[in-house]
Amino acid sequence: MTGNEGKMREIRAIMADCGLPVLSMREAGITAEIEENGTTFRENACIKAKAAGVMADTIFIADDSGLSVDAMGGAPGVYSSRFMGEDAGYDVKIGAILKNLEGLNGPERSARFECCMAALFPDGSVRTSYGSMEGQIAYGTAGRNGFGYDPCFFLPEYGMTSAEIPPEEKNRISHRGKALRAMKDIILEYLSNNGSGRSDCEK
Protein backbone atom coordinates (compact mmCIF):
# COMPACT_ATOMS: atom_id res chain seq x y z
CA MET A 1 0.00 0.00 0.00
CA THR A 2 2.02 2.86 -1.32
CA GLY A 3 1.74 5.40 -4.09
CA ASN A 4 5.46 6.12 -4.09
CA GLU A 5 6.78 4.97 -7.48
CA GLY A 6 10.33 4.62 -6.17
CA LYS A 7 9.15 2.25 -3.46
CA MET A 8 6.98 0.32 -5.94
CA ARG A 9 9.98 -0.32 -8.20
CA GLU A 10 11.93 -1.75 -5.27
CA ILE A 11 8.99 -3.83 -4.02
CA ARG A 12 8.22 -5.30 -7.45
CA ALA A 13 11.86 -6.19 -8.03
CA ILE A 14 12.17 -8.03 -4.73
CA MET A 15 8.77 -9.76 -4.97
CA ALA A 16 9.19 -10.74 -8.63
CA ASP A 17 9.84 -14.42 -7.85
CA CYS A 18 6.94 -14.71 -5.38
CA GLY A 19 4.37 -15.55 -8.06
CA LEU A 20 1.87 -12.95 -6.82
CA PRO A 21 0.67 -9.76 -8.57
CA VAL A 22 1.86 -6.59 -6.82
CA LEU A 23 -0.42 -3.56 -7.11
CA SER A 24 0.00 -0.04 -5.78
CA MET A 25 -2.78 1.65 -3.79
CA ARG A 26 -3.85 3.51 -6.92
CA GLU A 27 -3.88 0.38 -9.04
CA ALA A 28 -5.91 -1.45 -6.39
CA GLY A 29 -8.45 1.38 -6.29
CA ILE A 30 -7.76 2.30 -2.66
CA THR A 31 -8.30 6.00 -2.03
CA ALA A 32 -8.63 6.04 1.76
CA GLU A 33 -7.00 8.94 3.59
CA ILE A 34 -4.68 7.45 6.19
CA GLU A 35 -3.58 9.40 9.26
CA GLU A 36 -0.07 8.27 10.18
CA ASN A 37 -0.25 9.19 13.85
CA GLY A 38 1.95 6.42 15.25
CA THR A 39 5.14 7.19 17.14
CA THR A 40 7.15 4.29 15.67
CA PHE A 41 7.66 2.87 12.19
CA ARG A 42 5.89 -0.32 13.30
CA GLU A 43 2.82 1.54 14.56
CA ASN A 44 2.48 3.50 11.33
CA ALA A 45 2.97 0.43 9.16
CA CYS A 46 0.19 -1.38 11.05
CA ILE A 47 -2.11 1.64 10.81
CA LYS A 48 -1.64 1.78 7.05
CA ALA A 49 -2.04 -1.96 6.50
CA LYS A 50 -5.24 -2.19 8.55
CA ALA A 51 -6.75 0.89 6.88
CA ALA A 52 -7.37 -1.19 3.74
CA GLY A 53 -9.79 -3.52 5.51
CA VAL A 54 -9.89 -7.30 5.20
CA MET A 55 -10.61 -8.67 1.72
CA ALA A 56 -10.82 -12.29 0.60
CA ASP A 57 -7.76 -13.60 -1.25
CA THR A 58 -5.95 -10.27 -0.81
CA ILE A 59 -2.84 -9.53 1.24
CA PHE A 60 -2.21 -5.86 1.93
CA ILE A 61 1.39 -4.85 2.58
CA ALA A 62 2.25 -1.43 3.96
CA ASP A 63 5.52 0.04 5.04
CA ASP A 64 6.73 2.94 7.08
CA SER A 65 10.31 3.95 6.65
CA GLY A 66 12.62 6.85 7.17
CA LEU A 67 16.02 8.24 8.00
CA SER A 68 17.24 8.40 11.60
CA VAL A 69 20.26 10.62 12.27
CA ASP A 70 22.00 10.00 15.61
CA ALA A 71 23.34 13.54 16.00
CA MET A 72 19.77 14.81 15.61
CA GLY A 73 18.39 12.54 18.31
CA GLY A 74 17.00 10.10 15.76
CA ALA A 75 15.24 12.75 13.70
CA PRO A 76 13.67 13.00 11.25
CA GLY A 77 12.66 9.36 11.92
CA VAL A 78 8.93 8.67 11.53
CA TYR A 79 8.53 12.26 10.33
CA SER A 80 10.98 11.82 7.44
CA SER A 81 8.42 12.53 4.71
CA ARG A 82 7.02 15.53 6.62
CA PHE A 83 10.37 16.93 7.80
CA MET A 84 10.60 20.68 7.15
CA GLY A 85 6.92 20.71 6.15
CA GLU A 86 4.53 18.60 4.11
CA ASP A 87 5.34 20.42 0.87
CA ALA A 88 9.11 20.72 1.33
CA GLY A 89 11.17 19.07 -1.41
CA TYR A 90 13.96 16.65 -0.57
CA ASP A 91 16.52 19.26 -1.53
CA VAL A 92 15.18 21.36 1.37
CA LYS A 93 15.02 18.40 3.75
CA ILE A 94 18.55 17.26 2.91
CA GLY A 95 19.84 20.82 3.13
CA ALA A 96 18.48 21.13 6.66
CA ILE A 97 20.15 17.89 7.74
CA LEU A 98 23.50 18.92 6.25
CA LYS A 99 23.19 22.24 8.07
CA ASN A 100 22.49 20.45 11.35
CA LEU A 101 25.60 18.31 10.99
CA GLU A 102 28.06 21.07 10.10
CA GLY A 103 31.34 20.58 11.97
CA LEU A 104 30.75 16.86 12.56
CA ASN A 105 32.93 14.23 10.93
CA GLY A 106 32.98 10.48 10.24
CA PRO A 107 31.22 8.42 12.94
CA GLU A 108 29.70 11.61 14.36
CA ARG A 109 27.53 11.65 11.22
CA SER A 110 26.16 8.13 11.83
CA ALA A 111 22.64 7.44 10.57
CA ARG A 112 20.45 4.61 9.38
CA PHE A 113 17.54 3.98 7.11
CA GLU A 114 14.81 2.01 8.90
CA CYS A 115 11.79 0.19 7.52
CA CYS A 116 8.93 -1.73 9.07
CA MET A 117 6.60 -3.76 6.86
CA ALA A 118 3.13 -4.82 7.97
CA ALA A 119 0.91 -7.31 6.15
CA LEU A 120 -2.84 -7.64 6.68
CA PHE A 121 -4.01 -11.12 5.72
CA PRO A 122 -7.51 -12.25 4.65
CA ASP A 123 -8.08 -13.86 8.07
CA GLY A 124 -7.52 -10.52 9.79
CA SER A 125 -4.09 -11.32 11.20
CA VAL A 126 -1.28 -8.78 10.89
CA ARG A 127 2.43 -9.62 10.78
CA THR A 128 5.39 -7.26 10.73
CA SER A 129 9.02 -7.34 9.66
CA TYR A 130 11.91 -4.91 10.10
CA GLY A 131 15.09 -3.95 8.27
CA SER A 132 17.76 -1.28 8.61
CA MET A 133 20.79 -0.03 6.68
CA GLU A 134 23.62 1.65 8.57
CA GLY A 135 25.65 4.51 7.15
CA GLN A 136 26.57 8.15 7.56
CA ILE A 137 25.30 11.48 6.34
CA ALA A 138 27.49 12.63 3.47
CA TYR A 139 28.93 16.14 3.24
CA GLY A 140 26.87 16.81 0.14
CA THR A 141 24.73 14.91 -2.35
CA ALA A 142 25.65 12.50 -5.13
CA GLY A 143 23.95 9.95 -7.35
CA ARG A 144 20.74 9.58 -9.34
CA ASN A 145 19.78 5.94 -8.77
CA GLY A 146 17.78 6.49 -5.61
CA PHE A 147 15.06 8.79 -4.32
CA GLY A 148 14.29 10.72 -1.14
CA TYR A 149 17.30 10.93 1.17
CA ASP A 150 19.42 8.47 -0.85
CA PRO A 151 21.73 11.14 -2.33
CA CYS A 152 22.97 12.20 1.13
CA PHE A 153 23.23 8.73 2.70
CA PHE A 154 26.85 7.60 2.52
CA LEU A 155 27.84 3.94 2.74
CA PRO A 156 31.48 3.79 3.95
CA GLU A 157 31.98 0.19 2.81
CA TYR A 158 31.09 1.21 -0.76
CA GLY A 159 32.64 4.67 -0.73
CA MET A 160 29.48 6.12 -2.27
CA THR A 161 25.93 7.13 -1.46
CA SER A 162 22.94 4.82 -1.73
CA ALA A 163 21.89 6.86 -4.77
CA GLU A 164 25.14 5.88 -6.51
CA ILE A 165 25.14 2.12 -6.05
CA PRO A 166 23.39 -0.05 -8.68
CA PRO A 167 19.68 -0.67 -7.96
CA GLU A 168 20.20 -4.45 -7.73
CA GLU A 169 22.84 -4.02 -5.03
CA LYS A 170 20.75 -1.46 -3.20
CA ASN A 171 17.81 -3.90 -3.10
CA ARG A 172 20.13 -6.49 -1.58
CA ILE A 173 21.40 -4.33 1.27
CA SER A 174 18.68 -1.74 1.81
CA HIS A 175 16.41 -1.43 4.83
CA ARG A 176 13.37 -1.96 2.62
CA GLY A 177 14.95 -4.92 0.86
CA LYS A 178 15.71 -6.65 4.17
CA ALA A 179 12.23 -5.98 5.58
CA LEU A 180 10.53 -7.08 2.37
CA ARG A 181 12.49 -10.32 2.05
CA ALA A 182 11.56 -11.13 5.65
CA MET A 183 7.93 -10.30 4.83
CA LYS A 184 8.05 -12.52 1.76
CA ASP A 185 9.01 -15.43 4.02
CA ILE A 186 6.08 -14.60 6.31
CA ILE A 187 3.68 -14.51 3.34
CA LEU A 188 4.93 -17.83 1.99
CA GLU A 189 4.57 -19.35 5.47
CA TYR A 190 1.00 -18.05 5.66
CA LEU A 191 0.13 -19.52 2.27
CA SER A 192 1.69 -22.87 3.15
CA ASN A 193 -0.45 -22.98 6.30
CA ASN A 194 -3.60 -22.85 4.15
CA GLY A 195 -4.26 -19.22 4.85
CA SER A 196 -4.15 -19.14 8.63
CA GLY A 197 -1.79 -16.98 10.61
CA ARG A 198 -1.13 -15.22 13.88
CA SER A 199 -1.17 -11.50 14.52
CA ASP A 200 1.65 -9.53 16.06
CA CYS A 201 -0.10 -6.18 15.83
CA GLU A 202 -2.88 -5.25 18.22
CA LYS A 203 -6.24 -5.21 16.49
Oligomeric status of the shown chains? single chain
CATH fold-type name: Maf protein
Major sheet strand order: 1-2-3-4-5
**The top level CATH class name:** Alpha Beta
User: How much is the radius of gyration in Å?
Assistant: 17 Å
Q: How many separate domains make up the residues?
A: 1
Give average pLDDT, whole number: 88
Q: What's a quick, concise take on this entry?
A:
Helix content is 29%, strand content 19%.
How would the blueprint of this fold be written?
Blueprint: H1 5-15, H2 41-51, E1 60-69, H3 90-100, E2 110-120, E3 126-137, E4 153-155, E5 160-161, H4 167-173, H5 175-192
Antiparallel strand pairs: 1-2, 2-3, 3-4, 4-5
Question: Features of this protein?
Answer:
203 residues, 5 helices, five-stranded antiparallel β-sheet, alpha+beta, Maf protein
Would you give an account of this structure?
The chain is α+β, with helices and mostly antiparallel strands and 203 residues long. The chain contains 5 helices and 5 strands. The protein has a single domain, classed as Maf protein (Alpha-Beta Complex), CATH 3.90.950. It is 29% helix and 19% strand. A 5-stranded antiparallel sheet has the order 1-2-3-4-5. A hairpin with a 5-residue loop joins strand 2 and strand 3. The two termini are 18 Å apart.
